[in-house]
Amino acid sequence: MEAVKGIEIIELTVKSNENTFTFNPVLLIDEESVLLIDAGMPFQSEEILQAFEKEGIPFSKLKTIIFTHQDLDHIGGAPTILNKGDGSIQVLAHFLDKPYIEGVKTLIKADLSKISEEKKRSLPKQMISSYENLPKVKIDKTVEDREKLDFFGGMEVIHTPGHTPGHISLYLEKTKTLIAGDAMVILDGVLRGPIEQNTPNMKEAIASLEKILDYDIEQVICYHGGLFRGSPHETIKNLLEQNK
User: Fold this and answer.
1) CA 227 from chain center: how many Å?
2) How far from 237 is each of 26, 82, 178, 218, CA to CA, in Å?
3) Whole-structure pTM over 0.85, yes or no?
């Protein structure tokens, strides 16, 4: 799905008996290169590669992968994607999540011993297998809050911790687009705050939303829910008010 010219939202789904999980990595496309934001579960890498073919994009144009954070459904597909490249693809993430992504520490929410049996039963078998064989990805460059990146006409990193310590959102000035990662979600067409059961520090996650109000945003892309157009500032202000 094209959000605006040069921003392609990929839709990945996986089903269990009880639930359907949908993930939305993003491709930023210009004449010279392609940037991938987040990479799905380990078993979804081929679907991401197929998205290149579907859009008529040579895979060789992929120069950068940025992780919004360490969660398995965001980093899982990266090893296969990187192995398909020639070694020149750079991987970026916030420095606080780097040791988890690189496997120095266990992913905060990927310890199966801490996941309830009820939740395990709700997960597809493919997901359980992925939790048992966690990926490791080398981070080539770390980023920090308010850092300006020279991608897609200018991109600013917004450190939005709470969901994970190193969670980031990305603001694209040219298109007034916020790529929110899991700082927000869209449920039934409604923009909402982070999901509490998946957010270890909910207080910090809500406080992070206040930083987003500094930016002129016309659309938000959430990893869970896709594209939201409307009045994101109004929605965020309401979320902050509700959580005072």
Assistant:
1) 13
2) 26, 39, 16, 15
3) yes
